[in-house]
Write a structure and sequence with these properties.
- The complex is a heterodimer of chains A (299) and B (82).
- With 299 residues, chain A is an all-alpha fold.
- Chain A is 65% helix and 1% strand.
- In chain A, strands 1-2 form a two-stranded antiparallel ribbon.
- In chain A, strand 1 and strand 2 form a beta hairpin.
- Chain B has a domain of 54 residues.
- In chain B, 73% of the residues lie in helices and 0% in strands.
- In chain B, helix 1 crosses helix 4.
- The chains are: A mainly alpha (299), B mainly alpha (82).
- Chain B: Keywords: Membrane, Protein transport, Signal, Transmembrane, Transmembrane helix, Transport.
- Chain B: It is found in: Membrane.
């Protein structure tokens, strides 16, 4: 289009900077340049027939004041929201869980399906804060659970469609049901962690991330069930169930049984045994839920 | 499946109501779950039973007023919309 300047973005820092505190690459440099140059040519490039009502509208002092007032009101509202959003949704903490890249996602998916050869499950720390997920494959993230959840809903719709049982509100029902089970799991685990007085650094968001990893296995099982029938479904689901069980045990052992069992010392004492039972119960609930949420999709 | 977020909310409301109804003097003391019987030594391990009693007492204290509001809203909505 004539008269519109093209926006050119140059990254301020080279990608792949080795600073673990920086969650994302900085691309905020040259965007505002493009906006200023765009507006004036865009206004002048309008055909003259529509220029007069436009010009008269903007020349009217009352409406121009109204525009100015409206824009200040919008700016104030935006400031208020920005200031208070951190109280309800911890936005800065959430950003940590989405600082992923392709290599991390690939390695983590491989770890979820085949966790048997991985040796070191400890999250690396950088000056008292855990390292962002893109630098350590053991760190929990929310990208994979969120994407896997959405993919699970879509695959459920696909499976229902191939059996002529599909209707659009069933998608919402599936989503609501899976979210309800997730919420129930999180609440149950938080309650049992409180009752057993475990002093962990396992935050709620961490827990949601760990519990969301099972959707990956569920998607694999349902897709195989669509392609190869019930046999394929049971094979893949069984494999993913065992993998998730081992993955959860090895990950939660470091978080819940932090002192004793992390070095491989066998657990003794009533307190550690209770924590071990809790870990095993959490890990055993994953295959059960994976089966419960998918068996009605594969016929 | 019929297990939706709404039914989870309903179940949570009913559970919190159930905890709020447990009377301190008439009931909890008789089964030995009164809060003055549990806060024993200040050792390092509170134990599950005292954690539960603490939880019940704090839920009753904190949720008393919000429960009145939420129950009234629920009653009105259920009367209007079935």
């Amino acid at each position: 289009m004539p008269g519109l300047a093209s926006k050119r973005r140059t990254p301020a820092s080279p990608p792949g900077m080795a600073d673990p505190h920086q969650l994302f690459d900085d691309t905020s440099s040259a965007q505002h340049r493009g906006y200023g140059a765009q507006r004036a040519p865009g206004g002048l490039g309008y055909p003259s027939s529509s220029a007069s009502p436009q010009a008269s509208f903007m020349a009217d002092p009352v409406s121009s004041m109204a525009v100015a007032y409206g824009s200040t009101l919008a700016a104030q509202g935006k400031e208020l929201v920005d200031k208070n959003i951190d109280r309800f949704i911890p936005v800065t903490k959430l950003k940590y869980y989405f600082a992923v890249d392709t290599v991390y996602v690939g390695k983590k998916l491989g770890l979820l399906v085949f966790p048997y050869l991985h040796q070191d499950w400890e999250v690396q720390y950088q000056q008292d804060t855990p390292v962002a997920p893109r630098f350590d494959v053991n760190a929990p993230d929310l990208y994979i659970p969120a994407m896997a959840f959405i993919t699970y809903i879509l695959v459920a719709g696909l499976a229902l469609g191939t059996q002529d049982r599909f209707s659009p509100d069933l998608l919402g029902l599936q989503a609501s049901s899976a979210l309800a089970w997730l919420t129930l799991e999180v609440l149950a685990i938080l309650l049992s962690l409180y009752l057993v007085t475990v002093n962990t650094d396992l935050t709620t968001i961490d827990l949601v991330a760990f519990l969301g990893y099972k959707y990956v296995g569920m998607i694999g099982g349902v897709l195989m069930g669509l392609l190869f029938g019930k046999t394929g479904y049971y094979l893949v689901l069984g494999w993913c169930c065992v993998s998730i069980f081992v993955f959860m045990i090895r990950t939660l052992r470091l978080k819940i049984l932090a002192e004793a069992a992390a070095e491989g010392v066998p657990v003794r004492g009533a307190r550690n045994q209770l924590r071990m039972y809790l870990t095993m119960a959490v890990a055993a609930a994953q295959p059960l839920l994976m089966y419960w949420l998918t068996f009605h999709l594969v016929r | 499946m019929a297990f939706t977020l709404y039914s989870l909310l309903q179940a949570a409301l009913l559970c919190v109501n159930a905890i709020a109804v447990l009377h301190e003097e008439r009931f909890l003391k008789n089964i030995g779950w009164g809060t003055d019987q549990g806060i024993g030594g200040f050792g390092e391990e509170p134990g599950i039973k005292s954690q539960l009693m603490n939880l019940i007492r704090s839920v009753r204290t904190v949720m008393r007023v919000p429960l009145i509001i939420v129950n009234s809203v629920a009653i009105v909505l259920l009367l209007l919309f079935g």
